[in-house]
Amino acid sequence: MKNGGWKIAELRNAMMVTTFFFLWLAIFFGESVEETLAFILIFSFGILHGANDLEILRRKGLPDRKVKSGRKMLLAYVGFVTVTGLLFYLIPMLALLMFIAFSAYHFGEQHWIKRLGRYLPLQKPLFFTYGLVVLFLLFYSHAAEVSEVILGITGVAVPTLWFGRVLLVGLGLFAGILFINFYRSQLVRYALREFLLLGLFFLVFNTASLLWAFAIYFVVWHSIPSLADQLRLLYGTVSLQSGLQYVKSSAVYWVGALVTLAVAFLVLKDSDFGYLPLFFSFLAAITFPHVLVITRLYGQEEEE
User: Fold this and answer.
1) pLDDT at 36 (0 to 100)
2) Residue 1 belongs to what H/E stretch?
3) Helix (H, G, I), strand (E, B) or coil at 238
4) DSSP calls for 48-83
5) Rounded Cα distance, 232 and 303, in Å
6) Using an 8 Å Cβ cutoff, are 74 and 139 in contact?
7) Residue 189 has what pLDDT?
8) Cα–Cα distance for residue pair 18/15, rounded to 1 Å
9) Is the pLDDT of residue 30 over 70?
10) What is the pLDDT of residues 258-277, one digit of tens each?
11) What is the pLDDT of residue 64?
């Protein structure tokens, strides 16, 4: 692995500064401006960080004997996304619950995998409960609006008080897993840092609109660190050159995802299906295969 490029500590400092800058924007600008900025960030860095999955599979994921052709990999990947989209049409509540579970694990895995440095007995539950806490901090902060989005996707009205209940359960499980895995000075260091960070997220979520709050976490605290991880694993360094290589290899799928969403918006613009339910359903459809690819990538890195 090559040295150079951005260091992890430098990236975290930049993420913290960016978060406070975006928090300042949330205070001084209205919801329409926030939503515009949110879509710009999500459609650029957010979608981009999951647009290189096929390149990751080609270079890191599958043995050569199983990779028949790039076209077959593309068809299989698109088929997976299509089946996920059909799930949201046929069994929307199950699909939504799966999306929340997959996203929770994925967010937690990306956040913790570099911090741990070693395997822990309850590593996977740690990933899941941390991501669940982050998601339900967001849901709890915008309970009424999130409930409307869920109603638009599933047709089921979820009582807003459930978001707080799930959040409390998630916090309890997360704190318990921290206590089991870390002792004495380690426990204080990890627990203090992580709960302060969760406090920052709670402040951001309660200050910004739903979409802007989601964009700040999804892009600044997930997509950009994930892009950095992918650049290191694929090209050996985080730099302008490796970033351009990444964009070049993922451009077709990135643009394809944006065009697909744009077509869906045009087709459904006059229907009762709101743009937020459509947006999050689309995000879910491309999330499932991405989570599987990245989990496999991190697993390979631990074995090396």
Assistant:
1) 92
2) none
3) strand
4) HTTTTHHHHIIIIIS-GGG---HHHHHHHHHHHHHH
5) 16
6) no
7) 72
8) 5
9) yes
10) 887 787 777 766 566 666 67
11) 46
How many angstroms separate the CA atoms of 248 and 234, rounded?
13
Residues with Cβ within 8 Å of 132's Cβ and at least 6 positions away in sequence, in order, are: 100, 104, 108, 166, 170, 174
Tokens for 77, please give them. Answer: 């990947």
How many CB atoms lie under 10 A from the CB of residue 70?
12
d(CA 27, CA 207): 7
Rounded to a whole number of angstroms, the distance between the first and last alpha carbons of the chain is 11
* C-alpha Rg value of the chain to the nearest Å: 19
- 205-249 pLDDT, tens digit per residue, is 999 999 999 999 999 999 999 999 888 888 888 888 988 999 988
Q: Please tell me the distance from the alpha carbon of residue 182 to that of residue 244, in angstroms, as a whole number.
A: 39
* DSSP H helix total and E strand total for the chain: 14, 0
Cα–Cα distance for residue pair 139/147, rounded to 1 Å: 8
Provide the angle, in degrees to the nearest 10, between the axes of the packed helices 8-28 and 184-207.
Answer: 30
How far from 225 is each of 11, 107, 248, CA to CA, in Å? 8, 11, 19
Q: Is the pTM of this model over 0.85?
A: yes
What distance in Å separates the CA atoms of residue 61 and residue 56, rounded to the nearest whole number? Answer: 6
Mean residue pLDDT across the chain? 82
Express each pLDDT in 42-56 by its tens digit. Answer: 999 988 888 887 777
Taken in order 165, 167, 170, 175, is the CA torsion positive or negative?
negative
- Among 232, 303, 224, which Cα is nearest to 47's? 224
**Residue among 183, 179, 160, 181 at smallest CA distance from 171:** 179
Eight-state DSSP code of residue 228: H
Share of the chain above pLDDT 90, in %: 36
Whether pLDDT at 66 is above 80: no
In the numeric block, the tokens 């390979």 are attached to 300
